[in-house]
Amino acid sequence: MSKRVLTGVTTTGIPHLGNYVGAIRPAIAAAAEQNVESYLFLANYHGIIKCHDPAMIEESTRAVAATWLACGLDVERTTFYRQSDIPEILELNWILTCITPKGLMNRAHAYKAAVQTNLDAGQEDQDFQIEMGLYTYPILMTADILMFKAHDIPVGRDQIQHVEMARDIAQRFNHRFGKEIFVLPEAKVDENVQLLVGLDGRKMSKSYGNTIPLFQTPKQRQKAINKIITNLKEPGEPKHKDESPLFEIYQAFASVEETREFERALNEGLAWGEAKKILSAKIGEELDSKTDAYNDLIANPSRIEDILQAGASKARQEAKELLAQVKDAVGIRALK
Ligand code: ADP
Ligand code: TRP
């Protein structure tokens, strides 16, 4: 029996180092293994939750697709598609909405963070300016996952809770309707990769404008990396790895040996400026060879579109079959 791997990236901006180490790199590695079927996609319906700028949604769709392809996604072996090309996902989303407890959504991190922002700002209404899309977004993510009977979901640490919710909802459906229709998914997190911190000290995220983009010239990359927060310690003064987020970024790109060496150098007084040069070069080793492919794809959107259309027809076929079973299970059937 083959194993199914699935993950998505939202189309709200230009992919960054966090997306790469948290989802894109592990998903492409998992997809290349034997006996694995992979489903990798552009989450553009998730995109419109956080981003109401149509031009950005379009630009991001192109950039996220070009990133997957430039990073080595094999279109022959992988089902690669855009969420909105599979309307069955939205039908499944509704059916799952009908069995999801509201209390489960109250506990979702993204919603709780938005409530906390309102409370911190002294807002009386804790739901001020929070849309239903944000509130129910773990259900749409559940539909993405359950639709293709995925087992393993490679994600960054911020998404673990959502995958657990998908598991909960799958279990609930199977139990309620007495059928083992849905597979129970599991989050797969790379143990050497932390949630990368962005240039402003918060989680690196397309939504915060605090990212280091994946594909840049070495000069642009160095400039971005120079903005990573450090402290005022002088060259020669011992430094601890937790004094700057740059260490965890290095760790996400280096071997265990190299990481140990880097930590030792910091302890022995490596200057922050030098550390940033080492980091930039390390990232370049992994990404520079992919940059031309990325730029070529960005310049040829119709090539990307053709690939996505081919992926959508593969994915839709399967989605239709699963949705038919689900509808039958809940009693939405032809009358005989
Ligand atoms: P963003 O917050 O940049 O919009 P997405 O929500 O599209 O990112 O996330 C796509 C994938 O990238 C998810 O699996 C997520 O966990 C991962 N990811 C996002 N930001 C980071 C980060 N800073 N560090 C590690 N992984 C991340
Ligand atoms: N919600 C995820 C994020 O913001 C992206 C995503 C959408 C996803 N659907 C998914 C990830 C299904 C894994 C599986 O990061």
Main sheet specs: 3 strands, parallel
Which word captures the global form? globular
Architecture per CATH nomenclature, i.e. the level-2 architecture of the largest domain: 3-Layer(aba) Sandwich
CATH topology name of the largest domain:
Rossmann fold
CATH first level of the largest domain: Alpha Beta
Distance between the termini: 36 Å
Alpha plus pi helix count: 14
Class per helix and strand makeup: mainly alpha
Strand order of the largest sheet: 1-2-3
Description:
The protein is mainly alpha-helical. It folds into two domains: 3-195 and 301-330, 3-Layer(aba) Sandwich (Rossmann fold); 218-296, Orthogonal Bundle (Tyrosyl-Transfer RNA Synthetase). Helices cover 54% and strands 8% of the residues. The protein is built from 14 helices and five strands. It has helices at residues 17-31, 44-50, 54-70, 88-97, 102-106, 109-120, 132-135, 137-147, 160-176, 218-225, 246-253, 256-267, 272-298, 301-330, and strands at 3-10, 36-43, 78-82, 152-154, 186-188. The strands form two sheets. Strands 1-2-3 form a three-stranded parallel sheet. It has a two-stranded parallel ribbon with strand order 4-5. The chain binds adenosine-5'-diphosphate and tryptophan. The site of adenosine-5'-diphosphate has 19 residues, from strand 1 and helix 1.
